[in-house]
Design brief:
Number of helices: 3
CATH architecture: Roll
Shape: globular
CATH topology: ph1033 like fold
Number of strands: 7
CATH class: Alpha Beta
Helix content: 25-40%
Order of helices and strands: EHEHEEEEEH
Distance between the termini: 13 Å
Strand content: 25-35%
Structural class: alpha+beta
Largest sheet: 7 strands, mixed
Number of domains: 1
Amino acid sequence: MTTYWHMQIHPDDQAFSDDKLYKILENKKIIGLGEWEKGQEVISTFINTVEVNDIVAIKNGSKLIALVQVIGGAYNVKNDQSETHWIKHRRPVRILDWELWGRTLPQPRGTLVKCVSNDVETTKIIKEWHTKVDTVLRKRGLPSFV
């Protein structure tokens, strides 16, 4: 069964997402988290609970950016000298779709949040988006899972 999440990716500055996140997703094909003192529980969830084939809606506040599928295990990076140096904990992803029409989620807060209730509007939006994308993948003869 597919698990759904929503996640923000930025180094303590939401303006970063508008400037650089699209390039990181497109070119590096990763999602990830930095290292911060109060983030140990979130980091542990990212490493130990998120699984291959989970679906993650990437957002900046309430603004949706992309829908991605986790395609590999978590790994740690220590010596990255590029603009992604702050993303210490990473997972490889497949970009399923970009949100180009300005859709938003009613739940803007949270670095990494698991969708646990099908009755919550945020979960409904993410699942509906994934269902539409999955239909297109199947029509194109592409696999839904890795």
